[in-house]
Specification:
It is built from 10 helices and 9 strands. The protein has a single domain, classed as Alpha-Beta Barrel (TIM Barrel). The chain has 210 residues and is of the alpha/beta class. 46% of the residues lie in helices and 15% in strands. The longest helix has 16 residues. The structure holds 3-phosphoglyceric acid (3PG). 3-phosphoglyceric acid (3PG) binds next to strand 9. Its EC number is 4.1.2.14.
Length: 210
């Protein structure tokens, strides 16, 4: 694809959050997401297999935009980038993680939940942030309220996003994209129900391109 990674995320509008145990599951999910018309995946560093999954997906699906999620320390930044991740997502804001990502030359979406978090992100030169957990900290209403003092900030709300509330988030001009696991429910992955992942993904794409 063309354009910067953030531009590509902004065109995709939806970032599937993926939890897989190994490369095989990762490849199944990647195929299901592509089949649903969304060649994007945030593979979370919540499992020991995340690194292998990122390596396998980037090797077999070169057109796919693959990032690493739940990156919480600089060591994971280096692991994710070595595996081929082209963007990084963190649940919170860590200066050492942001600096490591910058040194690696890979964009990072640090997590923020408050105005103070956003101010800390801005001090580090970050203007695109993950709002997490979006549903718990106020959903679209929180983004509207935070956009008043922070008009230069764009958000990737994640946490509690579903097909039902997706339009409310995407309607906000300060929302670059949303993140969420609802398309790639872990139970579907374990059961090997990739058809349902594709169905949910296609539904999300239809809503997002509405
Ligand atoms: C994340 O890591 O961003 C969250 O687990 C995603 O939240 P969700 O499961 O509510 O979509």
């Amino acid at each position: 694809g063309s354009g910067s990674v953030l531009e590509r995320l902004g065109r995709a509008r939806v970032v599937p959050v993926v939890v897989v145990d190994d490369a095989e599951q990762g490849l199944g999910v990647a195929e299901a997401l592509e089949g649903g018309g969304l060649p994007v995946a945030e593979v979370t560093f919540r499992t020991s297999g995340a690194r292998d999954a990122i390596e396998a997906i980037t090797a077999d699906h070169p057109g796919m935009l693959v990032g690493a999620g739940t990156v919480v320390n600089p060591r994971q930044v280096d692991e994710a980038v070595a595996a081929g991740a082209s963007f990084l997502v963190s649940p919170g804001l860590s200066e050492s993680v942001v600096r490591a990502a910058r040194e690696a030359g890979v964009p990072i979406l640090p997590g923020v939940a408050t105005a103070s978090d956003i101010m800390a992100a801005l001090e580090l030169g970050v203007t695109t942030v993950k709002l997490f957990p979006a549903g718990v900290v106020g959903g679209p209403g929180a983004i509207k309220a935070l956009s008043a003092p922070f008009g230069q900030v764009t958000f990737v709300p994640t946490g509690g996003v579903t097909a039902a509330n997706l339009p409310d988030y995407l309607a906000l001009s300060s929302v670059l994209a949303v993140g969420g696991s609802w398309m790639v429910d872990k139970e579907l992955v374990v059961a090997g129900d990739f058809a349902e992942i594709t169905r949910r993904t296609a539904q999300a794409v239809a809503i997002a391109t509405g």
